[in-house]
Amino acid sequence: MTRLHFAFALLPSGWANDVQVVVVDGAIASVTAGVAPSAGDERHQMAVPGLASLHSHAFQRGMAGLAELRGDTTDTFWTWRETMYRFALTMTPDDVAAVATLLYVEMLERGFTRVGEFHYLHHDRDGAPYANLAEMAVRIAEAASASGIGLTLLPSFYAHSTFGGAAPHAGQRRFICPVDQFAALMAASREAIRDLPGANIGIAPHSLRAVAPDELAAIIPLAGADPIHIHAAEQVREVEDCSAWSGRRPVQWLLDHAPVDQRWCLIHATHMTEQEVTALARSGAVAGLCPVTEASLGDGIFSAREFLAAGGRFGIGTDSNVLVGVADELRQLEYGQRLKHRERNVLSGRPGTSTGRALFDQALAGGAQALAQTKAGLAPGARADIVGLDTAHPSLAGRSGDAVLDGWLFATGSDAIDCVWAGGDKVVAGGRHRLSDKAREQFNASVRRLVA
């Protein structure tokens, strides 16, 4: 049992003073406000819940910054994708473990306490399956275990290069599974996370361009009540190609032909019509927004104001992991809306509301739903995922309540984080993860070899 005492904490009911949190077996056993610290309490100033990065491709952390050289043609998502394929083809299981471990360490240092790993790097470099079909999933689980981050593993089904069941090309060979093999991969992946505390699993049909309709229908039952994540409408070309193939835009096709409900998370959903925005909001699905990656890849800007006005739910992800941080994603989300609408505080919701608080609350609830976490926040029964903020930081000094969130999200970043508990385990202290030096050393050794 661990007893923590915070001078201030953000609870589901709002901010509270003098909060004692009791942790038993990785979960919050009790939360009591208005009590003085007792002799056995570990004392801190300010606590907020950890957030989920609901969409991550861990291996891409290894190539961050390597695709910033303009080629002979217009540089787009599609040219970036070729660089990603080349990098993916070089990685060994040891490389994936080293890269994922550092990434998850960085996530924890920067306020993320759970990750939804959209995992599609399945096979050996020649495309042949490993002896253990889930070898790469095992390495992701090892990285989560070493770092302490909560893991929702989302094995991805990938079969085609584009719409209409086109054959995959050579650069995709490590991703490709027929339906029967994917079912076996799912079983092996469940085994890979079986002993990992707090871990769960879902499925991730990659996208409509990579999954044919009959294949989508065949794999959805593998999810049961677990999460279903899919990329949708990230790029204008994707929307155009989907319309040419089916007569429907990607989001509309999914709403018309798939059982989209609260289990589903549509990643990006950047390019939607007004009707799609409203229909997706009404479906109960979560929009998985990755604002830093969407800006990096030139995807476009999500219709966030309209989606929220229609009652939509969103969470945030780090996707390509080119830059990792709760503050970075939420700030980029709001700033994109400010640039689009030429207004300020676009996503605050109503007059007098803190934009930081509105963004934080939405991302907390949406991330928990998308990763099938039945409890979210600092509440009994929830996983003890807690972020302690440094109230001595210049951008937090003298502030209280929602002003602290505004200071963290809009005027600082990871340097405002002091301590992080993941599943009740204190993995970050003084802003540094206990594995930081070792993880960086192993990452650097792998990446130096890969880029050489």
Automatic annotation (TrEMBL):
Keywords: Hydrolase, Metal-binding, Zinc
One Pfam family recorded for the sequence: Amidohydro_1
UniProt keyword Hydrolase present: yes
Record-listed E.C. numbers: 3.5.3.13
One GO MF term attached to the UniProt entry: deaminase activity
UniProt cross-references to InterPro entries, sorted A to Z: Amidohydro-rel, HutF, HutF-like_N, Metal-dep_hydrolase_composite, Metal_Hydrolase, Metallo-dep_hydrolases
Residue intervals of the Formimidoylglutamate deiminase N-terminal domain: 2-45
Any GO CC annotation of this UniProt entry: cytosol
Domain of life, source organism: Bacteria
Ranges for domain Amidohydrolase-related: 46-426
Cofactor: Zn(2+)
Coiled-coil blocks: none
Top-level enzyme category: hydrolase
Protein name stated in the entry: Formimidoylglutamate deiminase
Organism the protein comes from: Bradyrhizobium pachyrhizi
